[in-house]
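== Protein entry: sequence and backbone fold ==
=== Local backbone shapes as whole numbers ===
==== Amino acids and backbone structure tokens ====
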Amino acid sequence: MIPTGIKYIFSNSTNYLHQILGLLTIMSKELDSLLAELKSVHEDLKPISTDIVVVADWVRLKCQYGCKSYGNHLCCPPFAPKPQETKSVLSEYRQAALVRFEAKTDPKLQAKGASRALGGSVTRLHKTIFELERTAFLAGYYKAFGMSAMPCNLCESCVVEEMLKKDQAVFELDLLKCKHKDTMRPSMEACGIDVFQTLKNAGYSPKVLKDYAAKVELFGLLLLE
């Protein structure tokens, strides 16, 4: 015979467990509904937990040393969030989605670097990431925020690049001069995210490309809740 007190505790615990499971079911259905809506914008996306997103300090060095876009684009370092800031932001989210794009290179522009050669695909990615963020926001996911890939190319040349050509000093608040501030979003790598390891954690098999003849895939990240 189970004592009345214990029966009461057990009953309450069971009810509480049912409530939690019911809440999780509702949340799962809501997320499934959102994913269906997002896939109407862009089909190729994968829901993930933000726990698998890796942020590392060394990533910023790849921007600072070796990338011509460093300091020349408002979506790039030093204007983009620092790795520590990105870690802090990610801690406020549980769910996200990786967005995959198949990119096409322009053979005529290969000599001018990856950003130029992939120009059309990068533009499409940036615009799509913004549209996905907007769709999630309007669906009630008010924390939704998108991250793209590679430097923004919504303008022929960034306002910062134009300022530097004129030998004008550039400051952090010059971010306000962006001509597409409503749609421009920083890339994952610009914010210190180790994209390769994050993709591996999500089940993808990223590889370093040796030439433009290889299949090119670009990834964006949509933070949800």
User: Anything to note?
Assistant: Residues 4-39 form the longest helix (36 residues). The chain has one domain: 31-223. Residues 31-223 form one domain.
